[in-house]
Amino acid sequence: MQQFANPTRFLQLANRALPTIWAVTVILFAIGLYGALVSAPPDYQQGETVRIMFVHVPAAWLAMLVYTVMALSSAVAIIFRHPLADVAAKTAAPIGAVFCFLALATGSLWGKPMWGAWWVWDARLTSMFVLFLLYVGYIAIWQAIEEPTRAAMIARIVALVGFVNIPVIKFSVDWWNTLHQPASVLRMDGSTIDWSIRWPLLVLGVAYTFLFLALHLTSMRSEITARKLRNLQIARSGEA
Amino acid sequence: MDWNADHAGFVIAAYALSLAFVAGLVIYVFNRDVRIRKRLTLFEKTKK
């Protein structure tokens, strides 16, 4: 594991893996969107509106997964001082924020025809909105604090403290009475969704995960290059 | 997909929004990567 701590070694691995990851992402999206828009039948109650689920649910899954990656990376940065851990957390945040925004926006577009309201302050929606604010706050810390070591330390704390919100999002539909439906895919007693609708959802879930992986590795490569450039510029200004 | 069904506009809007934001994110990440790598190459060239 220690060999991957070397940024040069990481860059070599990322450069080699990225074309394959992008190819798998495109194939999975093609299959998933075919399943979502062509193969899956309309719901007997919701009709065609159920198809919003295929973009809403994977975006929500990824919003939570990306924040978990940020929290884990921040813990690794604090405990092991792994040189890539802060880079991983920092570069994951904007990607997670976009997924979180998409989960909120597509949920709103699903809520209006089904509930008759664009937004309700129930536990699931509110905790998801809090996650979005955590993403924005985390990004703001890196932007606002010029000294990188100080920014990293504060960002790590925010990521770890904010992680408390992830189980709250997951179990909010069980702990409180919500308008949002309870879990129907990831359940202890098995999924309640028919296979004809479940398979496109799972394929798109994996497609979104691969998309995150591709974007994250590319962003990490950019961040490592930017840090290298900054160090070289500082070294040059020292020589002059 | 029945494009004339009730509320089909909400479905189209959800997919269009997702496509727009995902495409925007991909373009942003790629542009930044290309820009930074170009700057590094230029810096290393001027160093020599």
Write the layout of secondary structure elements.
The complex is a heterodimer of chains A (240) and B (48).
Chain A: H1 7-39, H2 53-80, H3 85-115, H4 123-144, H5 148-162, H6 165-175, H7 195-239
Helix pairs in contact in A: 1-7, 2-3, 2-5, 2-7, 3-4, 3-7, 4-5, 4-6
Chain B: H1 8-47
Describe the protein in words.
The complex is a heterodimer of chains A (240) and B (48). The longest helix of chain A is centred in the C-terminal third of the chain and has 45 residues, at 195-239. Chain A has one domain (6-41, 49-182, 196-239): Up-down Bundle (Four Helix Bundle (Hemerythrin (Met), subunit A)). Chain A is mostly helical. The model of chain A has no long low-confidence stretch (mean pLDDT 92). The relative contact order of chain A is 0.16. Chain A has 7 helices and no strands. Chain B starts with 7 loop residues before the first helix and ends with a helix. The interface between A and B is medium-sized, with 35 and 28 residues.
